[in-house]
Design goal:
alpha/beta, 10-stranded mixed β-sheet
Length: about 325
């Protein structure tokens, strides 16, 4: 009887060992354990020089140190971020191609574009919102106004133009939100990124922008554009003399942008978890916190479930704005 019992025990142990071996050698588990064993691409879906690009390069630098592999930034701009998002959605779900998206890509684009090259709800795996920050209402140095009330008064007498990082971009929707709240009309001029739009603002090709603070603050400090108001609830350290929109002309107005990290749908949870932890560590580093502070950004690092809830909540609000303003992208 003892022999039979020992034999059964030995067989059970062997089966457990075989099961464990199969588990550990399954493609997804083995892939997750070795990740990353080569460079990781971080797709920025807008042109270089904009806020998504600035944040992406700060994040990539810190994650390179944390992961022990190069995190390489690639700019793939166009169509309000959809081109870059499509590239990521169609990439192998192995953690080696990631997307740093502006919040508007997930909350606005699904309602704005008649046809999308991807389904933002099902073709991407959301990891975390990385950081967020306010916008800056600024005008061309050629525009004969010196404060927000003067600007709104001028805009009520003539049709002005405002630039953005593309149809549906965070900058575009902030501009629409602001013009709606101010009760003015303006013609939208889309670009492939925030930096090209700012260049045309400086030269006077467009009249104003509601741009992200990191991309616009340096030009405001240098006197190349006129900063009129900040869209946060409080003034910012980068431009302490610039009032909030609420202070200057429109009580209660607040418009804050944010940026999230995503991977292709189907990316193993173990890899997603590793990316999330690495992002958290990056955001906790003194170097990144200082860089974010300099650029007027605040770290977030919420969980995937919290990010999904944020997207759902904001999407409902933007859907109403898009319908009310009759904004359509082809």
């Amino acid at each position: 009887m003892m022999f039979k019992k020992d034999r059964i025990t030995a067989i059970k142990s062997a089966l457990i060992s075989i099961g464990a071996l199969l588990y550990l050698t399954s493609p997804s588990i083995a892939q997750a354990q070795s990740w990353p064993d080569k460079p990781v691409k971080l797709i920025i879906p807008f042109a270089a020089g904009g806020t998504t690009d600035i944040l992406g390069r700060i994040l990539a630098q810190q994650m390179t140190t944390i992961l022990g592999q190069n995190v390489i930034v690639e700019n793939k701009g166009g169509a309000g971020g959809n081109i870059g998002a499509e590239i990521v959605a169609n990439s192998p779900p192995n953690g080696y191609t990631l997307l740093l998206a502006s919040g508007s890509m997930m909350t606005v684009n699904p309602y704005l574009y008649k046809k999308l090259p991807l389904n933002y709800s099902t073709d991407l795996t959301y990891i975390t919102a990385v950081a967020g920050g306010p916008m800056l209402v600024s005008v061309s140095p050629n525009l004969p106004v010196n404060n927000l009330k003067e600007f709104i008064a001028l805009a009520k007498t003539k049709e002005l133009t405002f630039g953005s990082a593309g149809i549906g971009s965070q900058v575009h929707m902030a501009g629409e939100n602001f013009t709606y709240a101010a009760g003015i009309g303006a013609t939208h001029v889309p670009y492939k990124g925030e930096a090209p739009a700012i260049n045309d603002l400086i030269s006077g090709q467009i009249d104003f922008m509601v741009g992200n603070l990191p991309a616009a603050a340096g030009f405001a400090k240098a006197g190349k554009i006129k900063p009129l108001a900040i869209t946060s609830s409080k003034r910012v350290a980068q431009l302490p003399d610039v009032p909030t929109v609420a202070e200057a002309a429109i009580p209660g107005f607040v418009n804050v942008g944010w940026y999230a990290l995503a991977a292709p749908a189907g990316t193993p949870k173990a890899i997603v978890d590793k990316i999330y932890v690495a992002t958290q560590k990056a955001l906790e580093s003194d170097a990144m916190r200082k860089s974010l502070e300099i650029n007027g950004l605040t770290p977030i690092a919420n969980t995937p479930k919290e990010l999904e809830a944020q997207i759902k909540s904001e999407s409902a609000g933007w859907e109403k704005v898009i319908k009310a303003r009759n904004i359509v992208a082809q």
